[in-house]
Amino acid sequence: MNLDIPDGKDPIQYAWGEMVPGIGPAAAHLSLAVYEHTTLGLREFEAARLRVAQINGCLFCLDWRTDRDGEKVEEGFADAVTEWRTTDAFDDRTRLAAEYAERYALDHHGLDEEFWARMTARYSQREIVELSMCIGSWLAFGRLNRVLGLDAMCVIPGKP
């Protein structure tokens, strides 16, 4: 589906703000908070974010790379995320972040004791909650933008 966006209107600002003024700005604040207030390492953050983007198919999210004070993940990182099970480019935390993102998005009922034992061996409960909120945000908003045809024009609110 492609939303009917009035001429001269920014598609994201129109859909996220004007169409649903009681919900959209709050959603935009959550989306920004995930980037501005995360305590997760860049590689694990990006592994989870990119895995959700791959699952959602959000064009903007697939092209986006999180920048932290001029640092971004290396070229080819997205390919490694696709191959998270077998790549030698990831440490245990990064691999688990990609796995968790995939299972959260596709098989959350299958998160079993074996998975949680591996996860809690590498992540604190606080980090797991934070990563879960990040994944939930990306899953919801990336999918929203893709489903409504906004992803080709998407700009994270408040970012240039």
TrEMBL record:
<keyword id="KW-0560">Oxidoreductase</keyword>
<dbReference type="InterPro" id="IPR029032">
    <property type="entry name" value="AhpD-like"/>
</dbReference>
<keyword id="KW-0575">Peroxidase</keyword>
<protein>
    <submittedName>
        <fullName>Alkylhydroperoxidase family enzyme</fullName>
    </submittedName>
</protein>
<dbReference type="GO" id="GO:0004601">
    <property type="term" value="F:peroxidase activity"/>
</dbReference>
